[in-house]
Design goal:
Blueprint: H1 3-15, E1 37-41, E2 44-47, E3 52-55, H2 70-80, H3 91-101, E4 109-113, H4 116-131, E5 135-139, E6 160-161, H5 171-174, E7 177-180, H6 185-194, E8 198-203, E9 206-207, E10 213-214, H7 217-230, E11 233-237, E12 260-263, E13 274-278, H8 280-283, H9 302-317, H10 321-342, E14 348-352, E15 355-359, H11 368-372, H12 376-388, E16 391-392, E17 401-402, H13 409-425
Parallel strand pairs: 3-16, 5-7, 5-8, 8-11, 11-12
Antiparallel strand pairs: 1-2, 2-3, 4-13, 6-7, 9-10, 12-13, 14-15, 15-17
Helix pairs in contact: 2-9, 3-9, 6-7, 10-13
The chain binds pyridoxal-5'-phosphate.
Length: 426
């Protein structure tokens, strides 16, 4: 039963482009009607037709404690009663900043913004301001939000100047974005030979926007060394992996450290929050201490800070959560793999903390081009059939899944049982 969602979708399309406020929600890559959501509760989403789904998307990552966590809800409600926004400093910002910086010995200060896009855009401006250089290195398949200089075609795989991947982005704005292939050290080295004007490398150390594709240790080491040799800064975009892959995000799982880290998602627990953080020295360039300008009317919003604060405190008080979440993620993807294997379907699986991914292909992809070789038809059918059975997976093979603390082994068993049925008919 999808009648109400269908109607809601039609009505939305009359007044909102494509009926959605972020394109991926339209289910274009898998087809069909996106369920319109009425409410969430723990591990479940409920749509306007009353269908229930076990939710492996969790608002694309922020809800590590599932929907309507009581502690977060109570903190938000208490804060709301004191006023929604002041446009003036509050102590909550300092408290949340402390929770973040104390996790990293090389990070001293953090600035809050309202989205991951803003966090990355500001981090790049800071890197350019600190180094006095214009070029940035970005990797194919990594997504860093929709700001102009980062909307660059994921095309050639060579260290070419990026061309805009969206109308409305002037080529002049992307000509400073150098595009390289993920996990390709030679390509990256060439890039540093071609330009002596590189301000920073920006990378998702665990890529989650081309499915789950981790950077190799050797590749991250090359990123670090090339930045050091050439006086560029290394930015880890941990908007997705921060407090998700581990308590210290990707940093906790890889051997290299970034100069600037961007955050979002989990640090706002479902409220609109982003942040970027670095050493005292780097952050001193930021206005009002320094001259690199960056601002926001709702930045550090108290309600959002309160939600993030409770969430991070809970995670830090219970660090074993990450092992438990990874165990659940592994149980799920291993179950999917077994179901696929029984039906002679090639499936590649992976997990990093509470993030998981799976690809319908013969060989584990290590870059964007290889992800493009996966079987997208098979994925779309899998997605559709699982949705019908009450399991809400990310609606594109280019996305990852997220485990939350309320998902139980029994719920995973039900999901694996359904996946067995579905793999039989793929
Ligand atoms: N960076 C990464 C790694 C992301 O995954 C995303 C969003 O998914 C962003 C940046 C942009 O964040 P937002 O959608 O909050 O603007």
């Amino acid at each position: 039963m999808f009648e109400k969602s269908l109607k809601a979708y039609e009505e939305a399309q009359n007044v909102i482009p494509g009926g959605v406020d972020s394109p991926v929600r339209a289910f274009k890559s898998v087809g069909g009607t996106p369920p319109f959501i009425e409410k969430g509760e723990g591990s479940y989403l409920y749509d306007v037709d009353g269908n229930r789904y076990l939710d492996f998307v969790q608002s694309w990552g922020p809800l590590i404690f599932g929907h309507c966590d009581k502690d977060i809800e109570n903190a938000v409600l208490a804060t709301v009663k004191k006023g929604l926004s002041f446009g003036a400093p509050t102590e909550l910002e300092t408290y949340l900043a402390h929770e973040i910086v104390e996790m990293y010995d090389h990070i001293d200060k953090v600035r809050f913004v309202s989205s991951g896009t803003e966090a990355v855009m500001s981090a790049i401006r800071l890197a350019r301001g600190v180094t006095g250089r214009d070029d940035i290195v970005k990797f194919e398949g990594c997504y860093h939000g929709h700001s102009d200089s980062l909307l660059v075609q994921a095309g050639s795989g060579l260290a070419t100047f990026g061309s805009p991947s969206s109308p409305g982005v002037p080529a002049d704005l992307t000509k400073h974005t150098l595009l390289c292939e993920y996990n390709n050290i030679e390509n990256l080295k060439q890039c540093f030979k071609d330009s002596n004007n590189i301000a920073c490398i920006i990378i998702e150390p665990i890529a989650g926007n081309m499915g789950l594709v981790p950077a190799s240790d050797a590749f991250l080491q090359a990123c670090r060394e090339l930045c050091d040799q050439h006086g560029a800064l290394l930015i880890f975009d941990e908007v997705m992996s921060g407090f998700r892959a581990s308590l210290t995000g990707a940093h906790g799982l890889v051997s290299q450290k970034a100069d600037i880290i961007t955050f979002g998602k989990v640090i706002g627990a479902g409220m609109p929050v982003g942040a970027f953080a670095a050493s005292k020295k780097i952050m001193s360039h930021l206005s009002p201490e320094g001259t690199v300008y960056q601002a926001g009317t709702l930045s550090g919003n108290p309600v959002a800070m309160a939600a993030g604060l409770v969430s991070l405190k809970k995670l830090k008080a219970n660090p074993e959560i990450y092992q438990a979440l990874e165990a659940k993620a592994k149980k799920l993807v291993n179950g999917l793999k077994d179901a696929a294997t029984k039906n002679n379907i090639a499936l590649q699986i992976g997990t990093r903390g509470s993030m998981f991914g799976f690809f319908f292909c013969e060989k584990e992809p290590t870059n964007f081009k290889e992800v493009g070789l996966c079987n997208f038809e098979q994925f779309a059918k899998f997605h559709h059939e699982m949705l019908k059975r009450g399991f809400y997976f990310a609606c594109s093979q280019y996305e990852v899944g997220f485990m939350c603390t309320t998902i139980t082994d029994e719920q995973l068993d039900e999901c694996i049982k359904a996946a067995n049925e579905v793999m039989e008919i793929l």
